[in-house]
What does this fold into?
Amino acid sequence: MNHRQARDFFFTKSNSFLEPNEASEIWKRIAETLSGKSTLAIATDSSFLFDEKKIIRIMDELEQEKPIQYILGYEWFGDIKLRVNEHVLIPRPETQELVQWIIDEHKNKPAISILDIGTGSGCIPILIKKNMPQANLHALDISADALSVARINAQENKCTIEWMQTDILDEQLHLNQQWDLIVSNPPYILQTENLDKRVLAYEPGLALFVSNADTLQFYKAIIHFAEEHLQAQGSIYLECHQDYAVDVANLLELAGYQTILRQDMFGNNRMIKANK
It folds into this structure.
């Protein structure tokens, strides 16, 4: 099938399970991924033919509500392309805003050590390293599968990052190091929260849900960890659930931090910076 035939086929078949605007965005990603060309270049190149079987396979997975990022195996985060699969969360624009906050405030520092807690795909430390090559980056995650993805992403983006497999909830956790900055987008969702099937069925529960009924579970652990591992004049940057961001800020203030709460692009309380 040429581009027009493939596009018409996709929109006709996906009409029953995709909204038109969503279908347009997804088709653009499919076409560019399968062809390795821009949408405009494909539309004007009559020589390129799409494999109908590949398109049908992708559509079958879309109909099962599998995210297109997992189907195609990648997502963009800022200007970096990251591999993703069901072992890691799909990077979100809100997390990119958190990273940009860090970059804006620290990019001119000659040297800075940064730890990302719960790194998943490695999106946070990799984007920081690409924009702050002088920074010394470490990242930890409990999941060996997630760290495997993160390592590949770092290699493909030519970033040197030290990876650690460990559990931030381990009360006996001790690392013989301190950092100038700690950043985290930790799990903060309760098991009872109503989530979209695409998230619930495919994204890793380990990276989404708290393991008890306390949505602040990981923030408490990070604050405890920071007592020993954050430099005296260091900073903590956190992404939060919009409904509990004020509670996280209160926790930090009770621990002696001064906090700044920021909204994301959608007007939700989402990001916190804390300094002692």
